[in-house]
Amino acid sequence: MLLWGCHPVRRSNTSANPGRRFLWCANYEMDFWVIRSNFFALLVFLLHLLSTKQNCRAFACDFFQGNWVAQNPSYPLYDSTTCPFIEREFNCQRNGRPDLSYLRYSWHPHGCPLARFDGRDFLRRFKGKSIMFVGDSLSRNQWQSLTCLLSAAVPTAKYTVDRLDDVSTFTFSDFGVKVMLDRNVFLVDVVREKIGRVLKLDSIESGKHWKGIDMLIFNTWHWWNRRGATQPWDYIQVGNRTYKDMDRMAAFQKALTTWAGWVDSNIDPARTMVFFQGISPSHYNGSGWNEPQKKSCSGQQQPLLGSTYPGGLPPALAVLKGVLSKIKKPVTLLDITNLSLLRKDGHPSIYGLGGRTGMDCSHWCLSGVPDTWNQILYNIILNR
């Protein structure tokens, strides 16, 4: 006679399984004749199985698979008008956005609860420690979201804000917590030489700023397809070979591989947690959400309420996951792409830095979607 029981266990978060809880089922072989001669033992065993029935489902809970639920009265997680750290390009309410519905959506993963962000608990967990976001303006978007979330939890706490070169530091003095931002749009180096600005895909000297940090959240992608006046380099170098240009996706992959090598060579997992933000999407083409007549996110006031984006996932995400699958040290992917793709309503559009003469469907309003990224980050930390 073969009976089955299930035991819930928690596995470490890695790039392959961020934010998931797993169940392990073990079999119980029991001698039929022994059980028949001991009815009481069988009864006790069956009661044990019934008590674990809720845990005997073969599922993996993924914080990144779910849907947006409308009109949550407890959202947003903070009032953007009272957070002094939000820069103009993200402050949609102050820039005159008239609708408020985009503030009221909460993310609900399939099959498991998402704990509400607790800023005071977050600060206690990181007392005396440092957190650094490394990347482009999407990292800045998430960094400012986190500072607002934490400040809202401890509104009377003392803080300082400092900047040295490309590194900005927000310090909660009462807790000794530093929340930092290193603006580094490619992660690898751009060096000014005689021929001009050279993007060096196998050089990462800027990594000196990342050593000794307790939690690192990396990001790069949005600048890789820039051309013309907004392209911040003139040549690309790989090894000893210099190119005027090359396939951008291949360059992105090479840079990520260089970054992965830096992580493997420099990170002590006992000291430092490493995350990668994932690929934050843009919404400039309505064909992606089945409105081909739309050429931007302007006027969008609600998300897609399903769980899957009709236009599919960007190819850059597959490249990123491929590199993460080969990295040796533990790196957790904040796989925010799909949940963010569903939020075509979450961008500043004409209520960003460019006002009515600009159109921003790349960054996110604050309060807004990056708050959910940080809420998931907090939940992953809780489940470590």
What is the distance, rounded to the nearest whole angstrom, between the alpha carbons of the first and last residues?
A: 37 Å
The structural domain count equals 2
CATH topology of the largest domain: Rossmann fold
Strand order of the largest sheet: 7-8-9-6-12-15-16
In the CATH hierarchy, the architecture of the largest domain is: 3-Layer(aba) Sandwich
From N to C, what is the helix and strand string?
A: EEHHEEEHEHEEEEEEEEHEHEHH
Helicity level, as a percent range? 10-25%
The total count of strands amounts to: 16
Please identify the structural class as seen in this structure.
Answer: alpha/beta
Q: Indicate the proportion of strand residues.
A: 15-25%
Helical region count?
8
Question: Oligomerization state of this entry?
Answer: single chain
Fourth-level CATH superfamily of the largest domain: SGNH hydrolase
In CATH, what is the class of the largest domain?
Answer: Alpha Beta
Shape: globular
Which residue ranges are poorly predicted, with pLDDT under 50 across at least 5 consecutive positions?
Answer: 1-37, 42-60
Global Rg: 24 Å
Main beta sheet strand tally, sense and closure? 7 strands, mixed
If you average the pLDDT, what whole number results? 87
Description:
With 384 residues, this protein is α/β, with parallel strands linked by helices. The protein has two domains: 2-55, no CATH class; 65-382, SGNH hydrolase (Rossmann fold). 24% of the residues lie in helices and 21% in strands. The chain is built from eight helices and 16 strands. The chain has helices at residues 32-37, 39-51, 119-125, 137-153, 248-266, 315-324, 337-341, 369-382, and strands at 2-9, 20-29, 61-62, 66-69, 106-109, 130-135, 159-164, 167-172, 177-183, 189-193, 196-200, 215-218, 235-238, 241-243, 273-276, 332-333. A seven-stranded mixed sheet has the order 7-8-9-6-12-15-16, covered by helices on one side. A four-stranded mixed sheet has the order 10-11-13-14, with no helix packed on it. The chain has a three-stranded antiparallel sheet with strand order 1-2-3, with no helix packed on it. Strand 7 and strand 8 form a beta hairpin. Helix 3 packs across helix 4 and helix 4 packs across helix 8 (369-382). It is globular and about 60 Å long. The protein starts with a strand and ends with a helix. The model is unreliable at 1-37 and 42-60 (pLDDT under 50).
